[in-house]
Amino acid sequence: MTLVAGVDSSTQSTKVLLVDAETGEIVDSGRASHPDGTECPPEAWWEALQEAGKGLLERAEAVAVAGQQHGMVALDDHDEVVRPALLWNDTRSAPQAERLTAESGAEAWAADTGLVLAASFTATKLAWLAEHEPENAARTASVMLPHDWLSMKLRGATAAEAATDRSDASGTGYWSPHTDAYLPERLVQAFGRELALPRVAAPNEVVGRTPWGAAVAPGTGDNAGAALGLGLGPGDVAVSLGTSGTVFGVSDVPANDPSGLVAGFADATGRFLPLVCTLNAARVLDTFRTLLGVDHAEFDALALAAAPGAGGLTLLPYLDGERTPARPNATGVLAGITTGATRADLARAAVEGMLSAQADGLAAMAAQGLEAKRVLLIGGAAASEAVRRIAPAVFGVDVEVPPSAEYVALGAAKQAAWALSGRPNPPQWENGDTERLHGSAATVSEQYSTLRDETSSWASHR
């Protein structure tokens, strides 16, 4: 049996899967937590990888790392970390995103990079570093993303030898999915000067070896890893409900959305991965469970006890700011409260509001030409019975729920197996039985869109 390892270095933890390269069967696994916060010392990821991969990594003949996208890892000319990495969910660079967008225009950014800049993207974090920490900026010689840095550490390589992949490069704001090339002029616009950047490797390339001789694949961004793990093809759209909510699908053509709703990322196979991301997903449910003082099962029972529309109660779930739409300073809005409101209505409003934000993502994808023929619901919150049963009504389409699995780590393992095999296409692994749920349009969509549009008007008149 040939074993490969797939790593998911996410916001909250590192997961490692040891997988049979031919069948995709999971042989063993490990996990370790990361510190909380919107910035993190990269060494904490390395320590978590060593802990989660203990007894696993050295058994693998190939390894790949899928990591949280956009994080800024700044290194000096000795390859030492300059400051804690700013993570994707750090919104302090929102003013820089606005300034850079205004300088060139949203249309130009979308045409060049597939993106309209938001605080999540690496280019804006570099602009923040140059403006607010000039001494650290002056020390910075190279910049890379979390998965790039971890792959470099696994190889014992230097920054000059570092590699990345198309998917993660496409989330920086200084790489073009149209030309498969870096855009040094965009990097200079953001940071003021050029920096050393990782080489962008082919999707199935072996970029180096670990000290124990395992092949190291290029790695990928977390959402591209999930798409690979799920085996998504053109016409498939996944709705992933983790810390963030993401709606993404595989396309044969790059997206170009000047509105900024759809990010025109690349995928892990040489195609494209248009994506809509919200900052608020599973943690919306966590917040309301805490407010109601119930556990997961009790929360689900409450939400399912209320009628669709939650008795007129509607939640706009921008609890800690939002990325899509770009409202980094927003807070949540709960509307429609009357003396007849119940705890069940509150629970259902939380679920419907969180899902409605993802339904906006499905609509934005359709406007870019990616009409969902199949919607797959994944992520931690997909384990909620209330989420599974309410999602089809909010989305207005049938929904498939594949077996619960670490699809990001599984996608990384699939990339490792692909690189090891030397074959032209990634392996096809079975994901198991899928639950199919039927849906139809519900009034919650109108309630939500009305509240969303009203709050947009409020914000514009502040």
Notes on the structure:
This protein has a domain at 3-222: ATPase, nucleotide binding domain (Nucleotidyltransferase, domain 5, 2-Layer Sandwich), CATH 3.30.420. Helix content is 36%, strand content 20%. The protein contains 15 helices and 24 strands. The chain has helices spanning 42-52, 94-104, 106-113, 122-132, 134-139, 146-155, 166-169, 184-191, 222-230, 282-292, 296-305, 343-367, 385-395, 407-421, 444-460, and strands at residues 3-9, 13-20, 26-33, 39-40, 62-67, 73-75, 85-86, 142-144, 163-164, 175-176, 181-182, 199-200, 208-209, 215-216, 220-221, 236-241, 245-249, 263-266, 272-278, 314-316, 333-335, 374-378, 399-401, 435-437. The strands form eight sheets. Strands 1, 2, 3, 5, 13, 14 and 15 form a seven-stranded mixed beta sheet that branches. It has a five-stranded mixed beta sheet with strand order 18-19-17-16-22. The chain has a two-stranded antiparallel sheet with strand order 4-7. β2 (13-20) and β3 form a beta hairpin. α4 (122-132) packs parallel to α8 (184-191), α10 (282-292) packs antiparallel against α12 (343-367) and α11 (296-305) runs parallel beside α13. The relative contact order is 0.14.
Question: Key features?
Answer:
462 residues; alpha+beta; globular; single chain; five-stranded mixed beta sheet; 36% helix; Nucleotidyltransferase, domain 5
Q: Architecture of the domain at 3-222 in CATH?
A: 2-Layer Sandwich
Relative strand content: 15-25%
- Head-to-tail CA distance between termini: 63 Å
Using the CA coordinates, give the radius of gyration. Answer: 21 Å
Overall pLDDT level: 93
User: Biggest sheet, in brief?
Assistant: 7 strands, mixed
CATH topology of the domain at 3-222: Nucleotidyltransferase, domain 5
Oligomer: single chain
